[in-house]
Amino acid sequence: MSFLEISVTDKPTLNNAFLIEGLPGIGNVGKLAVHHLINVLNAKKSLEIYSSSLPPQVTINEGGIVGLINNEFHYYKNSKNQRDIIFLTGEHQGLDHKGQYDLCIKILELAKEMGVTEIITLGGYGLGKIVEKPRVLGAATSISMVKKLKKAGVHFSAEQEESSAGIVGASGLLLGLGRLNGLEGGCLMGETSGYIADPTSAREILLVLQKLLSLDIDLSDLDEKIEKVGALTKHLTGMSDSLDDSEIDISYIE
Amino acid sequence: MSFLEISVTDKPTLNNAFLIEGLPGIGNVGKLAVHHLINVLNAKKSLEIYSSSLPPQVTINEGGIVGLINNEFHYYKNSKNQRDIIFLTGEHQGLDHKGQYDLCIKILELAKEMGVTEIITLGGYGLGKIVEKPRVLGAATSISMVKKLKKAGVHFSAEQEESSAGIVGASGLLLGLGRLNGLEGGCLMGETSGYIADPTSAREILLVLQKLLSLDIDLSDLDEKIEKVGALTKHLTGMSDSLDDSEIDISYIE
Amino acid sequence: MSFLEISVTDKPTLNNAFLIEGLPGIGNVGKLAVHHLINVLNAKKSLEIYSSSLPPQVTINEGGIVGLINNEFHYYKNSKNQRDIIFLTGEHQGLDHKGQYDLCIKILELAKEMGVTEIITLGGYGLGKIVEKPRVLGAATSISMVKKLKKAGVHFSAEQEESSAGIVGASGLLLGLGRLNGLEGGCLMGETSGYIADPTSAREILLVLQKLLSLDIDLSDLDEKIEKVGALTKHLTGMSDSLDDSEIDISYIE
Amino acid sequence: MSFLEISVTDKPTLNNAFLIEGLPGIGNVGKLAVHHLINVLNAKKSLEIYSSSLPPQVTINEGGIVGLINNEFHYYKNSKNQRDIIFLTGEHQGLDHKGQYDLCIKILELAKEMGVTEIITLGGYGLGKIVEKPRVLGAATSISMVKKLKKAGVHFSAEQEESSAGIVGASGLLLGLGRLNGLEGGCLMGETSGYIADPTSAREILLVLQKLLSLDIDLSDLDEKIEKVGALTKHLTGMSDSLDDSEIDISYIE
């Protein structure tokens, strides 16, 4: 009795495409990065996935119009005869383990139908403390993909700190299930405190993607967000005793 | 292996009908409003929905008779050649995300069969503090519905306070799923503290519905409840140190 | 993918039989009463219900032999041409709302196949304090059943204290689902503190059942348990500061 | 909509084989013992079970390669014309009661297909305190299996301490479901504090298995782990006030 409905706007066949996942997660790093890419590349809406594995909830936009929580594909057709991209984002990941599996299996099925051959998942790697220069840590489904990511500046430590926990949620599951389905892939994890939405970490991921995908990415909009969050962080860490909630709005960075 | 059983008392075909939802929620505002309407309009029982998405529990009425927890339709046939109404209420919403989806999908299916063309969901908008003059906030599935609600006195702020969280549960889901099924709708949220059942907030919603549905609604019964809750609130806020539990019964307002 | 397996020992067709439910619950009152009845009436094992709605767990008996947690039917064929009885008991109720529905629906299906026409569910009514003379409170699916229970000494108060919460779990659900399936029934709730297994409350229920079912029930075994629990309770309430865990075994009363 | 995929490396037909389960649990005793056996017997990978009943998560190995969490069979073909063995291990047990049932039912089905006739499950028996000489406690599906285990040194007390709780999870469920499927079996529970991974307890289990399965098992590797954990435990219990987290790595024993 699971509910699943795909609402298609435009479902083109793409050229040797990447699926780039940026669903909400630690520091919202992946979502920030993918939303930035959708905006600066002017990616087109492809389809919406509605599912009972997502929260029974609607969002309300500025005009007062509601929208059922979903996961979405946007696509970017690369004009230079290079590889196309599908961006996966949404307001939520699947709500429990079965929901995570159900959604990721459907996402991979749709992505393969549209021509996806490789998967890049994006996420944050929570450190529990603020870091000045976040690195981008990596993991991948094959040795060749590890090499490719290293060349693009991704950090793989000999004693992988994240090895004990692994990667939880869609960023891990899409890789694991993808490999069972013959799709190679890698995960980019931007180091982040994990306390607030972190555009600085997302920026580092975008620098890696720029190399990996041979794209020019305008980062100016993100730099503004970084400044705002920087100001907020200074405020929070330096003035926490005299904190006046009404002055601070931590909701403007998603 | 989900259990679902519809027990039909009377399932008429209605004229361009509204579905008005008033299931339990914040401040029980929606349920109070719909129960009031069922009583004053003398709406007839249509059907009962029993489901394993609801709690495995029976209620006991005054005579000691048990009833399995359900969701119910009551209908009101408008004698003046105007639009009919189905009222949806019950003791509980679906228990988890799948249960919410399963029930709302069934409710919409039944409502469409009976002639429903528009959905109005009712709920409370929790403020965390007691408010003297609660406003009725709105959200809707289309711009034309937003306009219709504004004309009836519903408040849509430019910086929608509720936009971050959205609408959780049946009040949101019926709109979101309804839109996927071609049904337009809107949500009326009465501002409320969220601490106790709030007939004052329900009254404001009824004043909006009166305009929206061109109905005369006798509010005297609700005014009595408002007085009782007012006395209780004074007692609770003014005498909280000397509180004697046995003197106060907060269960008589549902 | 739900697992359900019925292991039948003996499945006779019974005469206008009662289903008497005594699964674990508040004060284990229902389970104590039904286990007592199975013992003194020498009821025969009929069948075992194994299900993934029950905990993934085995019990270990004194000889070290494991048994998968289940729900069981025992039956008692009344020699005096009177109504037969099926006793329902087990180590656990269904684990969540779907599990409760799945199990109770299967139990009712099996019970009807074997000739059950009426359901009596047993449970505790938690007071949160120790009560000297526990009453047996009732609820039922019809006015005639309310009358029948009253005649047997069951207490129905005008202002039913339990009316707000209703009856949660199998004791309620079997009645609610039973009524949807054309089976009338009633619930007997023995007042109990809710802190420990309460044979005193179970004894009161047995006195009601004795009248209701026209049975002679030997209570001597239960009286021993009552004495043991009485000694324990005195110990716990009078000597709680000097409590030596090793002296007290609260597991010997199930 | 459950996901289940079996990835087969090698699925031989075995001779009157044992299934030996060592999934994570109390003190990781079972997993330690089975991993040791797989290593010293050089057991071959047979198959991997992927399932939505397991966490939506990948592990990352030292090279940065991800692997979807699964349960695995390794097999050992006994060259001396004796009984073969399948080892079951993995990073997780099923995540909830349905998941436990789903996985164990599939495991038993696969095991029977490959020639398994008896099941030995391994686990820890948590004492809540450190024990110098851990015993191996037992439970089994038949009296003859109890005798067999006793002969191999397994402890069955008259007043079985574990009888109240039983055995929770795969170690219990494989026995319980196995018995329903005509497979006899037993559980070996090594006493352990339950606080940390306990190779000492696993060693006691291996000594029992050595007798039970007529195997020579090299324990030297495990003895090293025992020394490391012993040093750690001394450190933790004796120097807990001056504890420097960076000096201690409790992750190296799985």
UniProtKB/TrEMBL annotation, chains A, B, C, D:
InterPro entries: MJ1210-like, Proteasome_assmbl_chaperone_2, PSMG2_sf. It comes from the Archaea. GO terms for cellular component: proteasome complex. Keywords: Proteasome. This is Proteasome assembly chaperone family protein. NCBIfam families: proteasome assembly chaperone family protein (TIGR00162). PANTHER family: 3-ISOPROPYLMALATE DEHYDRATASE, 3-ISOPROPYLMALATE DEHYDRATASE-RELATED. SUPFAM superfamilies: Cgl1923-like (SSF159659).
